[in-house]
Inverse folding.
């Protein structure tokens, strides 16, 4: 009986350790990422905005004003 109890405690502790060490944040180092994927952004004014690391995958951006916007490191597969 005592052996079964210790086996159960050991299994639970190993499971907790596995969860603690295997867990990773979903958006690693992307705390302020803006995601405009598939958005309709026609004629929007993004001038002088900080869009660093933004995601614009398949965003419709015809006529959008990006003058002086910080677009360093974006994912921009626009249509």
């Amino acid at each position: 009986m005592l052996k079964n109890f210790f086996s159960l405690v050991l299994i639970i502790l190993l499971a907790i350790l596995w969860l603690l060490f295997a867990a990773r944040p979903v958006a690693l180092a992307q705390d302020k990422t803006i995601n405009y994927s598939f958005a309709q952004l026609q004629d929007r004014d993004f001038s002088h905005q900080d869009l660093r690391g933004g995601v614009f995958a398949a965003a419709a951006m015809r006529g959008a004003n990006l003058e002086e916007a910080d677009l360093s490191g974006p994912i921009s597969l626009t249509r």
About this structure: The chain has one helix and no strands. The longest helix spans residues 2-22.
